[in-house]
Specification:
The protein has helices spanning 10-20, 22-27, 77-91; strands spanning 31-33, 43-53, 64-74, 96-98, 101-103, 105-116, 119-129. The protein has 130 residues and is α+β, with helices and mostly antiparallel strands.
Length: 130
């Protein structure tokens, strides 16, 4: 029995968009959900940070607003900024469908940078409508 996919599966569409983008793929093809401790730099980690459901007046499901955090982890600062720019180019103002999911809108709403362990980290936060 097939399960209808909802915004809880948003990571699948985000991963697909990033893997299909030539600028992102030229920099890394290592894209993981939530967390990884096995990857070699550079890599991307993504997670759904929040979800706000907007049901229709009829009680049926409507669009959901989700917040996505994407971490671009690299060995050098400049490489991290380039990867973050590629990720932004792939996702910012994107509308697409993938495997029964529809991304209606997506835009960058916040960003921050840090150094953790052995990696420069560019954190990008996107708000998406599914």
């Amino acid at each position: 029995m097939a399960v209808n996919k909802t915004s809880l599966s948003a990571g699948a569409i985000i991963r697909a968009v990033l893997l299909e983008d030539p600028e992102v793929a030229a920099r890394t093809r290592k894209i993981f959900p939530v967390v990884t401790d096995q990857a070699e730099l550079p890599y991307i980690v993504y997670r759904r940070a929040s979800l706000e459901s907007n049901p229709q007046k009829s009680g049926r499901p409507g669009t959901d607003m989700i917040e996505l955090e994407i971490l671009c982890c690299t060995a050098s600062y400049a490489e991290g900024v380039e990867l973050a720019e590629a990720v932004r180019g792939a996702l910012d103002y994107t509308e697409t469908e993938h495997d029964g999911l529809r991304l209606r809108a997506c835009h960058l709403t916040a960003s921050e940078e840090s150094y953790e362990g052995d990696a420069y980290v560019q954190q990008l936060v996107f708000t998406a409508k599914m």
